[in-house]
Write a structure and sequence with these properties.
Bound molecules: zinc ion
Structural class: alpha/beta
Shape: globular
Number of helices: 19
């Protein structure tokens, strides 16, 4: 069947296209305009915006921490209900996989990356990801606080050994890339360390955080993984931590490095409360470090829950829990912490955080290197995205929001002076073309022939947030799944992974390690396709060779 989307403004930055025209779909793929052939089905999208499906590179939608968060905060579901009253046909529980897929699709998102899968928890995480309808998924595998890697580094083993270990772990856990969370900090926490920076050493191993980041960055680069090492820096959330982020940017040393939720590291110590936005300084550093990419981790106001495998940070933040309950658990490698939090617009610190995120968006020049995230649910649930798009595209709207916030908070940021408004092509780059490139997904994020027909159509509305919240049409693999913000068809997507080559020797070594340390067989952390229970649940993304 040939489907035609007729007469919309087609914006496809990956192919330099921004013009009124048509897009054709056949057998789940985008195809060139047929000569003289009539389409079997035509959607008139005159006056609408036609983009590729959006791709979210960092959103915590599966895994042990998310499950604990859901169990601890069933009331969060009501927050979603306020956003989408009566929208969901069968709310089957609290903040669940079903809602995750439907709400993402309604906004025009078709691929989402879960950025923190602990290797030992990979099977459970993939089962949860597979249960999320409509969207495609991928997982980033977490290393950097694990005993095996720290032992390799303590023993000054060769970079080849680290590379083989990274390759084996990725293939076994079916990750698309490697994430490091407060490198060494969670391991140090086991020795009662409460503050840990880039050049601090993990007690007992004598290995610095910097050495861990550099070893992983090198392994990721040499394996040719499309996604650079994804770094959650040290000192998240602390006043003055801009120095840590700047030092980490400098440590990239010209090789690819991705810094996650940079807003949480954009804090100086200026002003009457010794807490200020240092986002302008940070954006300047990002602008000049061409090998570095960042995502923002925008804060929005309201109730949420912070969930992180940065157990040191979560432990230190436990007393700020709103409401007063939290879970902190230690465990192999990272452990984790769940701390509920309510961001308030009349709170000085929260208002500075909100402004710092927007400053990062607006002062980073290159939409190919700054990515759209709230670090869901840490800065805000992903359901807040439509409001953030509106704020980026409309300075008047920002002015109205700022007027409701503490003046002394806005005084320690540069946001009031920023006039930039994001354009449609910039939005399309940041949320489609750039993330596809950053993840190595060559047939997504664009609208050229051969691409997967993941397409989102938006009907311009004076209320921009409404426009983004309720996409006019969304196609997934060429099938219409959303009309006027309502899911009309439920499909299931796939997960992307990479399977880089490793020397066979590493497998024997891992077998001995797990047998001797844990008495476990090697396959205890593998993710068999049969477990997912659907045909072709994984799609392999090639490495650069
Ligand atoms: Zn995160």
């Amino acid at each position: 069947m040939l489907t035609r989307l007729a007469g919309g403004r087609v914006i496809d930055p990956a192919n330099g296209r921004d013009a009124v025209g048509d897009v054709y779909i056949r057998d789940g793929r985008i195809v060139d305009a047929p000569s003289g052939g009539e389409a079997d089905e035509t959607h008139d999208v005159t006056g609408n915006i036609v983009l590729a499906g959006a791709i979210d590179i960092h959103s915590h939608i599966a895994g042990g921490n998310e499950t604990l968060g859901r169990l601890m905060l069933p009331e969060l579901r009501y927050a979603l209900d306020v956003v989408h009253p009566g929208h969901l046909p069968q709310p089957a529980g609290a903040w669940n996989t079903f809602e995750t897929g439907h709400l993402y699709a309604a906004m025009g998102f078709t691929t989402v990356v879960e950025p923190a899968v602990l290797p030992h928890n990979a099977l459970q995480s993939h089962l949860e990801l597979a249960d999320i309808p409509i969207i495609d998924k991928a997982a980033l595998t977490v290393l950097g606080n694990d005993d095996f890697l720290l032992n390799l580094l303590r023993g000054r083993e060769s970079p080849d050994a680290v590379r083989d270990y990274v390759a084996w772990t990725l293939a076994t856990s079916r990750g698309l890339g490697i994430k490091v969370i407060n490198a060494g900090g969670a391991a140090a926490f086991k020795d009662n360390v409460r503050a840990f920076s880039l050049d601090d050493e993990v007690p007992g191993y004598g290995v610095s955080s910097r050495a861990i980041v550099k070893a992983l960055q090198r392994a990721v680069h040499e394996l040719g993984l499309p996604h650079p090492l994804h770094v959650h820096c040290n000192n998240l959330g602390l006043a003055g931590n801009v120095e840590t982020a700047l030092a980490t940017i400098a440590a990239a040393e010209g090789l690819p490095l991705h810094l996650a939720h940079l807003q949480f590291y954009a804090y100086g110590k200026d002003g009457p409360r010794s807490f200020s936005s240092a986002a302008a300084r940070l954006a300047e550093a990002v602008n000049s470090a061409k090998s570095v990419t960042v995502d923002v981790g925008q804060v929005m106001f309201g109730q949420t829950v912070t969930i992180s495998s940065d157990v040191l940070r979560q432990f230190n933040a436990r007393n700020s829990a709103r409401p007063k309950k939290y879970v902190i658990f230690d465990g192999d490698a990272n452990g984790g912490g769940i701390v509920p939090y309510e961001y308030r617009s009349n709170d000085f610190y929260n208002a500075v955080q909100w402004a710092a995120g927007l400053e990062l968006f607006l002062l980073t020049n290159d939409p190919w290197r700054v990515f759209f995230t709230t670090d869901h649910p840490n800065g805000a649930p992903f359901t807040a995205y439509p409001d953030i798009f509106a704020l980026l595209m409309d300075r008047e709207l920002r002015t109205r929001w700022m007027a409701t916030m503490p003046k002394e908070a806005m005084a320690v940021t540069t946001l009031p002076s920023i006039t930039r408004e994001y354009t449609w092509p910039e939005i399309a780059t940041m949320t489609r073309a750039a993330p596809a490139k950053l993840l190595g997904l060559k047939d997504r994020g664009h609208l050229a022939a051969g691409g997967v027909a993941d397409i989102a159509v938006y009907a311009p509305d004076p209320d921009k947030a409404k426009m983004f919240r309720e996409a006019a049409l969304v196609f997934k693999n060429g099938e219409l799944v959303v009309r006027d913000g309502k899911v009309v068809r439920q499909s299931f997507g796939r997960a992307f992974d990479v399977r880089p080559d490793a020397e066979r020797a590493i497998e024997h070594r891992m077998r001995d390690y797990y047998d001797q340390r844990y008495g476990l067989p090697l396959d205890f952390m593998s993710v068999p396709e049969a477990a997912i229970g659907r045909p072709d649940p994984f799609e392999r993304v090639p490495c650069n060779t």
